[in-house]
Amino acid sequence: MLPFDFDYYKPETLKEAVDLFQYLDQQGNQPMFFSGGTELITLGRIDLAYTDAVIDIKDIAESKVMKVSGDHLILGSTLSLTEIEEANLFPLLTKTASEIADHTARGKITLGGNICAQIFYREAVLPFLLADSQVLIIGPEGKKVIPINEIFHEQLRLKRGEFLVQLATDSRFITAPFISIKRRQQWDTGYPLITIAALKTGQELRVAISGLCPFPFRSKEVESVLNNIEMSLEARVQGAIELVPDPILDDVEGSAEYRLFVLQNLFYDVLARLER
To answer: What's the pTM value of the predicted model, to 2 decimals?
Structure first.
């Protein structure tokens, strides 16, 4: 039960959703786009989220798309992680998403909800950062298609009144060799410690990480060192560790030192798998 009341709206089109947000915002409300509700329920119960009006976008047709169009896979933002897992059209995304929360929760958590969440982890974004995916966003200024690596910096940088509609991924990344590993402090239970996702395209290794910092990230600097085959394996891993961004999480799940230790071993695992 949430400790506050809110009005509920369910628009049928993208334009109706955008117009409704603007109208409610101008009336002095605090509207929120809603596609699954897990974060609102979780954070609302502990006074870390609040809204006067929920705008439910999960049944808008464009946001429920799952199709191959030409050389791209198009995924709607309101698809549940379970739907994505069962379809298995993007194996790296399937593997990464299949380890988010538990089976029951994945049936409610949506792709866009995870990517745009306030929580640290947001593992579903990692495959899209690696694949240079394009995002379709709609808001008061209309539709925009933007490379995800230009708009995702610690979080998806949406303007007020905008929301994520779709993500498009080139098929050459979908079929690339990949690895996705999640490490937890308590084996198969508890929150994740670190998740690493990597793929190889040509001779280039790409790596994205969640759980090390208070945000998921892909670092070109880290990748440059890991791809430098003129260095020893140990030097590459140590050099990559020295280039990860700050701050490193230090909490009950694991100290900063322990997280870096785990990451070091994950780098070795990634290199061993993808450089065979």
So the answer is: 0.93
**Distance in angstroms (rounded) separating the CA atoms of residues 110 and 167:** 13
CATH fit for domain 7-56, picks 2.40.10, 2.30.30, 3.30.43, 3.30.70:
3.30.43
Q: Are 237 and 219 in contact (CB under 8 A)?
A: no
Give the chain's residues under pLDDT 70.
1-5, 36-50, 186-191
Question: What are the pLDDT digits (tens) for 174-225?
Answer: 999 999 999 987 655 556 799 999 999 999 999 999 999 999 999 999 999 9
**Is there a contact between 243 and 221 (Cβ–Cβ < 8 Å)?**
yes
CA-based Rg of the chain, rounded to a whole angstrom? 19
First-to-last C-alpha distance (Å) of the chain: 52
Phi, psi for 46 (deg, rounded to 5): -115, 25
